[in-house]
Amino acid sequence: MEIADQCRMLLRVGDQEIDINEIEAFWHRNGHITIDFPATLISDDFPYKKDLFSHFRNEKRKTSEYLHHQFRKKKSLGNYFQADLNKLIALEQARALSIPVPPTLVTTSKKTLVSFLTKYGKAICKPISDALMLTDIDEGTVAYYTNVLTDENVNSLGDHFPLSLFQQRIIKKYELRIFYLDGEFYSMAIFSQSDEQTMVDFRKYNHRKPNRTVPYSLPPDIQDKLRQLMKQLDLNIGSIDMAVTPENEYVFFEVNPVGQFGMTSFPCNYYLEKKIAQYLAQTI
Amino acid sequence: MLNRSVDRNHFRLFANCVPVKGASRSLICDIQRAVYHFIPNDLFDILTTQANMSVDSLLAFYEDENNSDTIKEYFDFLYTEEYIFFCTADELALFPELNLDWDHPSAITNAIIDINQSSEHDFPQLFNQLEELGCRALQLRFFSDISLQNLSEIIRLLDRSVITAIEILLPDPGNLRDEEVISLITLNLRISVICFHSSALTRELRTFSDLPTTISFSTNAITDESHCGVISSKYFALGIELFTEGQKYNTCLNRKLSVDKSGFIKNCPSMKATFGNVKTTQLKTAIAAAGFKDPWGISKDQIYICRDCEFRYICTDCRAYTVNNGIYNKPLKCKYDPYSIAWSE
Prior knowledge:
The structure holds 2 protein chains of 2 kinds.
Chain A: E1 2-3, E2 7-8, E3 10-13, E4 16-19, E5 25-27, H1 49-72, E6 75-77, H2 87-96, E7 104-109, H3 110-120, E8 123-126, E9 132-136, E10 140-144, E11 147-148, H4 151-156, E12 160-168, E13 174-181, E14 184-191, E15 212-216, H5 220-232, E16 237-244, E17 250-256, H6 262-268, H7 272-281
Chain B: E1 10-13, E2 17-21, E3 26-30, E4 35-39, H1 41-48, H2 55-63, H3 68-80, E5 84-87, E6 110-115, H4 123-133, E7 137-142, H5 148-156, E8 165-171, H6 178-187, E9 191-197, E10 214-217, H7 240-248, E11 256-259, E12 265-266, H8 283-288, E13 336-337, E14 342-343
Parallel strand pairs in B: 6-7, 6-11, 7-8, 8-9, 9-10
Antiparallel strand pairs in B: 1-5, 2-3, 3-4, 11-12, 13-14
Helix pairs in contact in B: 5-6
């Protein structure tokens, strides 16, 4: 990068050079830009090795910051700075907008959990961050998503356990996967409830007889609230998980700022890839 | 009906289960699960024109005609197969129909290249042009002998291509060892189908669970482009792409481009109209030429007889061989009659 008569920043991707000034819009789906440092060899007996590496890290951090500063000026889809959204913050904000959310508990204490269960009945347990994916050569990848907490589970717990998130189990009429793009909602209803396998988490796919997935028209009042939520979270794209209860309540679970859209777009024939392209191509 | 509670007195078809009416019977096309079911035309009417009636009022409506048992059976069938769900009147509007528009980012989605002993195709050139057009599926039809060695060289040109599926037809060189075929396919896993025609034997060799390719042998000799245009239930395909494309576009020719054995650019090698020769004309120039895209928009709904056929959105088409050579007539090689619902020999 160069800050002189003109400000210039060049990114090298493989053998291609991209001038940041020429980028008008970008879509951040996932990942981040790393700044490569040439390998630096320092002999082990150099007394300030640790300090020096820490200094290098800071140099890199500040350089990244400037890169982000450049990117913030561009039109973008997806929030590069909000890709690792906090589920708890999202729940709190949804609640503040009076969007129903499941009663939620984060604890390490069995005692607290038991009184939560006494109050709210059945609960589910899910990650506070992302799903844990464990890959085994023979078993393939095992993903830890959302599970119902059984009495057996609770009994087997010691007085304290690793930090865990519990939520009241919501009875669903159907689930909603809602793709949000620049103010518009593209919703899909998932009929996961007639199948034991997919009842708690539809991502435990039944490939033989897949859950019915059909387009859904989100009522305008729900749209308004969600639009506000997305605005507050500073997101112009994202995948929202909700469920409709038998009482017709729209319960918010989470929003994934880097959510996939193919799983909604293809079955509902929404052509979201085209809408994304059109958004980015619109003159700024 | 089984689980229908008092308040869920309405029904809705799942949007991806689309009823299609034929002259004498209808289909429910289950686009999501890729199956179809025949239904009588009265049930089609219930599912479409009477879709907003409550189940009770429907039963009452047909009570007068003493048909309510039949109606109950229909609903049991629809519910068991998960074609419908029961809901309240308020919920009906929350479940819109599936948007049946079709689009694709590529100028050309599929192409056929025919080759015989006199062909002088410049493959690197042709493939580059197809790449530029965004072509996704390619069929190579060899009418005369080609060695696996020469074929490999052609296939290798598509090592890093936007094409995702390659179908190859070629004469069986005879005495083929399985390993030779496998090594050809592993060269480029885009090969989805390889068919050895003019073979002494008919067999299907699909014992490799890790390969995505269908390998088959046929005793039929495919010596020119006339061996095409066959309509059969074997070729029915139920999926959202074909189903939506078939609503407004031709299910064979839309976004297709062909290069015949002599290098002429056509919609289909069996059709007469040519739009230049690859030796002198760029593919993109041919596509832009007047008339090239005309057959793209001939949908089944515009074709005599096909438009009365319940299979029209899951069927392939042929505009080269048609009854009395009429461009709006049904494919000559279709043996189905939607009025008598019979396939003739």
